[in-house]
Design a protein that fits this description.
- The protein has 331 residues and is an alpha/beta fold.
- The chain has 2 domains: 1-146 and 287-330, no CATH class; 147-285.
- The chain is built from 12 helices and 12 strands.
- It has helices at residues 19-27, 41-50, 94-109, 123-128, 136-144, 171-174, 177-193, 220-234, 245-248, 251-254, 265-276, 311-330; strands at 7-11, 34-39, 56-59, 72-77, 115-118, 149-154, 157-161, 201-205, 238-243, 259-262, 281-285, 290-294.
- It has a 12-stranded mixed β-sheet, sandwiched between helices.
- α3 (94-109) packs across α5 (136-144).
- It is globular, with a radius of gyration of 20 Å.
- It starts with 6 loop residues before the first strand and ends with a helix.
- Bound molecules: 1,4-dihydronicotinamide adenine dinucleotide and ligand LD2JLWAY.
- The ligand NCC(=O)COP(=O)(O)O binds at residues 135-137, 269, 282, 293.
Length: 331
């Protein structure tokens, strides 16, 4: 038998969103991985039919395979709690969504899967169901017991975030020397290990306009960011900044950086999405397993219409496969 294909768990995401149909679309790709959908079989087949896809679903028996036919997926079944109408959220299915994430996460931790690729979830409906939830990133971090960093990748641009899903008013207090140091060490380690960048160059943004304007527009740069960068440079990390965020993404700066660390979600991601939406990938750094995801949300406005683009899910799956193969070669 040829080398067994890496086993990638693919969670279907919010059942009323575009996730299930994009996973059906992913099945048609020629990606050389054992793609194992985690979710409801009838939901996935209905989503496939909505796009005219003939999907061959086989129960996952855990045995390695050496090849996969385009149009086929294996399945770890997690059953819906309630019927689904595309585009219509139902909090009765919030527990189902979390069960798919738990199953994939535990499978990765146990070595059953080489990676997990997640289709988008609707964070609000999970909260509406009374379950505190701010995102896959935080969920997997808690379940795996790891400090993590969210990073999105589009071509050569990598944007990591010092904070993730927080109200803007909570951001300054969340940027402490300790949290920032943990973040920078994770980014450094995973650029080295996961992305094989020998001497990562990280460009760090300031928090305030004009990176604080010498303390006149905020002191986080002077009190927290600059002293930490100075100390880490002393250890050999190649860190530039804190730079004013409004000009940090100019090509002249990006040419000298392997990654940009933004202080908060909407400081870094609009730039990345403006440049790469549709083929960018979200990766969680710091986990003991590989997790990638799409660059978009549940797009309820498009669900069931057969028009949502699968480019980002396909890119996320290709990146998960590349990282799994690199990890396998290193073991
Ligand atoms: N990885 C994840 O689980 C993510 C989940 N979300 C969640 O998704 C929900 C909706 O978020 P929004 O801010 O509305 O963002 P969204 O990405 O769902 O939609 C923004 C716009 O992009 C379009 N769009 C999104 N994906 C597309 C695709 N594959 N092909 C073509 N057009 C596409 C939508 O039609 C809409 O016009 C929220 O609950 C959010 O938390 C958002 C981002 C990532
Ligand atoms: N904007 C990125 C995003 O919301 C993805 O979050 P997560 O669910 O992957 O943690």
């Amino acid at each position: 038998m040829n080398a067994p294909l890496p086993r990638l768990a693919i969670t279907l995401g919010e059942p009323a969103g575009i996730g299930p149909e994009l996973v059906a679309e992913l099945a048609r790709s020629d990606i050389a991985a054992d793609l194992i959908a985690v979710g409801d079989a009838n939901l996935l087949q209905a989503a496939a039919r909505s796009r005219g896809i003939e999907l061959h679903l086989v129960a996952d028996d855990g045995q390695p395979i050496a090849g996969r036919q385009p149009g086929s997926l294996r399945l770890v079944a997690v059953d819906l709690a309630a019927d689904v109408v595309p585009g219509q959220l139902d909090k009765a299915n919030a527990g189902y969504v979390l069960s798919t994430l738990a199953r994939a996460c535990d499978g990765c931790l146990a070595g059953e899967f080489d990676a997990v690729v997640t289709a988008p979830v609707q964070k609000s409906i999970i909260n509406d169901a009374g379950i505190p939830f701010s995102g896959h990133t935080e969920y997997f971090a808690l379940r795996a017991g790891s400090d993590v960093v969210m990073m999105l990748v589009a071509n050569d641009l990598r944007v990591a975030l010092a904070t993730t899903h927080l109200p803007l008013s909570a951001v300054p207090a969340a940027i402490t020397r300790a949290s920032l140091e943990t973040t920078l060490r994770i980014v450094q380690r995973d650029l080295l290990g996961k992305f094989a960048i020998a001497q990562p160059r990280i460009l760090v943004l300031g928090l305030n306009p004009h990176a604080g304007e010498g303390g006149h527009l905020g002191r986080e740069e002077i009190d927290i960011i600059e002293p930490l960068l100075r100390d880490l440079r002393g250890e050999g990390l190649q860190l530039t900044g804190p730079l004013p965020a409004d000009t940090a993404f100019l090509p002249s700066h990006l040419a000298k950086a392997d990654a940009v660390l933004a202080m908060y979600h909407d400081q870094g991601l609009p730039v990345l999405k403006a440049l790469g939406f549709g083929h960018a990938v979200n990766i969680t750094l710091g986990l003991p397993f590989i997790r990638t995801s799409v660059d978009h949300g549940t797009a309820l406005d498009l669900a069931g219409k057969g028009v949502a683009e699968a480019g980002s899910l396909i890119a996320a799956t290709r990146l998960a496969l590349d990282l799994a193969l690199r990890r396998r070669a290193a073991d």
